[in-house]
Write a structure and sequence with these properties.
Layout (H helix, E strand, L loop, with lengths): L18 E5 L3 H7 L4 H22 L3 E8 L7 H17 L1 H6 L3 E5 L7 H13 L7 E8 L1 H17 L10 H6 L15 E4 L18 E4 L9 H13 L8
Parallel strand pairs: 1-2, 1-5, 2-4, 3-4, 5-6
Helix pairs in contact: 1-2, 2-3, 3-5
């Protein structure tokens, strides 16, 4: 006779969120703690992003949407904005080749047409190079604001209604989702299952307000440049302890 033991929850394989959103916060504080200028933290943040992307891909995450620059971030000192805007150029040269070898596909969301020319060029090159990759999608939210995204969607829906493409009665949640930047993702991947914010701040700051309606939220005190594979794993373990009901019982 053999004994039959129910598997403990901790022995179960981890369920990996399909889409993770990350608010990468705390770069400035990380640099300050090291008595370095804020931009030093952004550089380290880019390195952390590379490591976390590859770790996420290895864990089986399908989409990583990262908040790299919000519509509000333009109010930072000009020098800092300039530095952040140059990161994609460095990112393309230094980090994209490894991501490409890892079958990562790079995409972006946000009002990207307003980014400086070189910034957009570097991102377009990264996007073109990795266009046919079938692995994890690294989705950069750049010059992104969730409310602005919804305003734009409303404008475009109104235009299409006026052009008689459909009537107001046809508007439903799916229609609205189709007009958001995330429409480039397949339907089952559009909404993040998990949103992580680093550095101890407990808010979403206009990050994917429509798409995160049912996301699990995970906040950690870790500053973004220190966030690594172990930290990602801890977030996924916490996610597995949640009971996602989507309004049901
Ligand atoms: C928030 O930390 C971080 C940002 C506004 C920039 C994030 C950008 C990266 C991590 C690099 C992204 C990579 C590319 C290729 C675009 P903070 O400056 O607000 O930190 P603080 O709250 O400690 O001041």
């Amino acid at each position: 006779m053999f004994s039959f033991r129910k598997k403990e929850k901790s022995e179960m394989p981890l369920q990996v969120p399909k889409h993770i959103g990350i608010i990468m916060d705390g770069n400035g504080r990380w640099a300050k703690k090291r008595m370095q200028p804020r931009v030093f933290g952004h550089k380290a943040g880019m390195e952390a992003l590379q490591n976390v992307t590859i770790a996420a891909k290895e864990m089986g995450v399908q989409v990583l949407t990262v908040y790299a620059f919000s519509t509000e971030n333009w109010s930072r000192p000009e020098k800092e904005v300039k530095f952040i805007m140059n990161l994609p150029v460095e990112f393309y040269e230094r980090y994209v080749p490894e991501l490409h070898r890892n079958n990562v596909k790079i995409q972006m969301i946000g009002d990207v047409a307003k980014l400086p020319k070189e910034t957009l060029e570097a991102l377009n090159k990264a996007q073109d190079l990795t266009r046919l990759n079938t692995g994890l999608i690294l989705n950069f939210a750049l010059n992104y604001g969730g409310r602005a995204e919804i305003v734009q969607a409303v404008k475009n829906i109104t235009k299409d209604v006026l052009d008689a493409k459909f009537s107001p009665e046809d508007i439903n949640e799916d229609v609205i989702a189709n007009y958001l930047y995330t429409n480039s993702l397949s339907r089952i991947l559009r909404d993040p299952d998990l949103v992580i914010r680093t550095s101890g701040e407990l808010r979403l700051s206009n990050f994917l307000p429509w798409q995160s309606a049912y996301s699990e939220l995970y906040f950690t005190d870790i500053l973004w440049p220190d966030f690594d594979e172990n930290a990602l794993n801890a977030a996924i373990v916490a996610y597995n302890r949640r009971n996602r009901r989507f309004g049901g019982v």
